[in-house]
Design goal:
Elements (H helix, E strand, L loop, with lengths): L1 H6 L23 E5 L4 E5 L5 H8 L16 E6 L2 E2 L7 H4 L2 E3 L4 E2 L3 E4 L2
Parallel strand pairs: 1-7
Antiparallel strand pairs: 1-2, 3-5, 3-7, 4-6
Bound molecules: FE2/S2 (inorganic) cluster.
Amino acid sequence: MVAVGAALPAGCSLHLERFTPRASSGGDAPFEVELRRSNRTVAVAADGTVLAAVRAELPDTAYSCEQGFCGTCRQRVLEGEVDHRDELLTDAERAGSMLICVSRARGGRLVLDL
Ligand code: FES
């Protein structure tokens, strides 16, 4: 899909729809997520999601597709480096937020504005 978009002549547009989430690169590691406003820290297992860990503490946290498509689960990131695994957010949006249903931490810790 990326190659097709790159091969288009200038001025042409392309609409893409993805029906499966981007595959994990494998070898995921566990990490912690601090929920700053709630004064809590949750553990995300190697095979778990930030969304599931957050919802265990904050069950009203919004979500829908759980596949990185809809943007409902988008949260503001205060600290930490994100491994973005969605296909929705722009680079500018990724600078300060993440989709917690699919994306993970690159390091051992993230801080979210939750
Ligand atoms: S729940 Fe849809 S993008 Fe996360």
